[in-house]
Amino acid sequence: MKLLKLTFLLLFLSCKNNSEKLPVLSYKIDDSGNKTYYSIKYDGFINQLNKPFNTKNIVNKVFVANFFFTRCPSICPPMRNQLIDIAKTFKHENRFMIVSHTIDPKNDSISVLKSYAELTTIPNSTWQFLYANTEKTKEQANQFITNFRPKKDGIDFYHSSYVSLVDEKHSIRGFYNILINEEVNRLKKDIAFLLSE
């Protein structure tokens, strides 16, 4: 019985600590080995409604960010399903948003992104699909400590199934492989935690 109580206590404290203190992960390490923290910024993007998207759009928002493309034949469809579920979970939270960046500006025009967004049935205010040229999108991916590149077949891209969680101060607080259910559950708990702060 004592062992059972101790196991429960350790499990409770472990879960509590994970939720109560999410690390700030948006930093670079300089040549001296020191951390330099930075905030996520936006400039030069256009959303699915053909409106500019900049840092003002993420003020007072907790958001999840990812990189995708609409013709993706591999990881994007299951990623999208998980993001739809997350959006529905937090549908009553006006401080929550999802920001998806297309990595295929050649094919993902604003009208294509608008149609893609409509198919999710999630309100535009909750889920922003962003367009910019490849150079600008790569700069943004660098802020999220990720990257992408086209495959030789000219159809698919090498890109990550991880999403980033960003707090109201525009700091990255977590990375999650959205193709793993346990990671999705952890992401939901961490979103709820940041929204409760």
What can you see in these coordinates?
A five-stranded mixed sheet has the order 7-6-5-10-11. Strands 1-2 form a two-stranded antiparallel sheet. The chain is built from five helices and eleven strands. It has 197 residues and is of the alpha+beta class. It is globular. Helices cover 36% and strands 22% of the residues. It has one domain: 3-Layer(aba) Sandwich (Glutaredoxin). Strand 5 (62-68), helix 2 (76-89) and strand 6 form a beta-alpha-beta unit. It comes from Flavivirga jejuensis. Belongs to the SCO1/2 family.
The end-to-end span amounts to 36 Å
The CATH homologous superfamily is called: Glutaredoxin
What is the global morphology?
A: globular
Look at the structure and give the CATH class.
Alpha Beta
Largest sheet: 5 strands, mixed
The CATH architecture assignment turns out to be 3-Layer(aba) Sandwich
Helical content band: 25-40%
Question: Helices, strands, pairings?
Answer:
Elements (H helix, E strand, L loop, with lengths): L1 H19 L6 E3 L5 E3 L7 E2 L5 E2 L8 E7 L7 H14 L6 E7 L7 H11 L6 E4 L3 H10 L5 E2 L6 E2 L3 E5 L5 E6 L3 H16 L1
Parallel strand pairs: 5-6, 6-7
Antiparallel strand pairs: 1-2, 3-4, 5-10, 8-9, 10-11
Protein name: SCO family protein
InterPro entries: SCO1/SenC, Thioredoxin-like_sf
Family: Belongs to the SCO1/2 family.
